[in-house]
Each structure stands twice: as C-alpha cells, then as structure tokens.
Design brief:
Elements lengths: L1 H18 L2 H4 L7 E4 L2 E5 L2 E2 L3 E2 L2 E4 L4 E4 L3 E2 L2 E14 L4 E8 L8 E12 L2 E8 L3 E6 L3 E3 L4 E6 L2 E5 L3 E3 L4 E6 L6 E5 L1
Parallel strand pairs: 6-8, 7-9, 8-10, 9-11, 10-12, 10-13, 11-14, 12-15, 13-16, 14-17, 15-18
Antiparallel strand pairs: 1-2, 1-8, 2-3, 4-5, 5-6
Length: 189
C-alpha cells in the first residue's frame, strides 16, 4: 500500500510546483538586463559580458564599477534592489545620452529596482535632447553615498526617483534641468 502512495504523492507535488509562478522559482538575486554604452553586460538574467572600456560588472555583488568611464547610456532593468554603481577612487566618469522624449532616454536609467551610487570618484550624467533625466530610477529608491560627487542634468529633471532619494556620507550632488517646462532639478515621487 505504501508503494502506491509514494508515486501518487510525488506526482501531486510535481503538479503543485507547476502552478507556482515563474518568479517564485527564480534563483535568489536573479538579474534582468544591464547595458553600458550599447554593450549588454546582463541579458535575460545571465551575465553576457564582464565590461566595456571604463566599466566592469561583477554579477555576484551586482556592482557596476566605473573607472574613468566616458561613454553612452547606462541602462538597467529588473536588476534588483541591490544594484550598485561604484565610482572608483579618484576616477572621473561621464555617461551621456540623447533624449528623444522618453525617461528611458536618460543617461542613467534604472527600472524596477533600486540604485545605489557609491565610492569616491565623480560621475557626470547628462542627457541632451527633448526628454529624459540625468539619472532616473523608476520603481525604486536612489541612494548616493560615500564621498561620491554626482552631477546630473537632463531636459525633464536632473535626478528623478519613483521612490525615495537619500544622500549620505560626504557625497556631493548637483542637478539641473536643461529645458523650459521641465519637472524640476531633483524629483522624488
């Protein structure tokens, strides 16, 4: 009698597992997409490349290190609430984008997760054109800490966060808008 119950129990467990949403089965710390200067570093949750000149990504710590980066947009989606951009000591970094009327055109764009910017280097995030922000975090919080120096400018806002914005340590932050009718220098919804 016990030998018939075991296969039936296993079958029931397998059927119940199939009803779970895919997100519940995802590995802890699963990542979505990260593109730096047009180079995909994470795609479909898998690391595809370790970096591009001036930028390197560590999947285990979910940290993008900028060390004299001078390039295009940093675009991240579904990278979790522990995604960090670390500014290497003494490094001068610049991310630039051409905004064409969408927040996704921001020089640094994070969607569905939080972003921390830390370290002791500097970062200029600038968006030119008709839309976007210097730094935009949609669906999460933005934290700038350490002794990082961050300067952000964009047509709609310098810095935007759909959650809270926290500046701590000896971090220095400046933000500016470059278009009339903009939303403001620093915006937190």
């Amino acid at each position: 009698m016990k030998t018939k119950r075991l296969p039936a129990t296993l079958l029931c467990l397998c059927m119940a597992a199939m009803l779970l949403p895919a997100a519940a089965l995802a590995a802890p710390g699963a990542r979505g997409q990260l593109t730096v200067n047009g180079v995909p570093l994470v795609s479909g949750g898998q690391a595809t490349n370790s970096g591009t000149p001036g930028a390197s990504y560590d999947y285990a710590s979910n940290t993008l290190t900028l060390s004299s980066y001078d390039g295009g947009q940093i675009w991240a989606m579904d990278m979790g609430d522990d995604f960090t951009i670390y500014l290497a000591q003494g490094s001068v970094n610049k991310a630039a984008a051409s905004g064409a009327g969408s927040d996704e055109d921001s020089a640094i764009w994070m969607e569905n997760g939080s972003l921390a910017i830390s370290g002791s280097g500097s970062l200029t995030a600038e968006t030119q054109g008709t839309g976007g922000s210097g730094v935009a975090v949609r669906g999460g919080d933005l934290t700038i800490s350490g002794s990082a120096t961050v300067s952000a400018a964009g047509p709609w806002s310098g810095i935007y966060s759909g959650g809270s914005i926290t500046i701590s340590g000896s971090a220095t932050v400046s933000a500016a808008v470059s278009a009339a009718g903009s939303q403001g220098n620093i915006i937190s919804d």
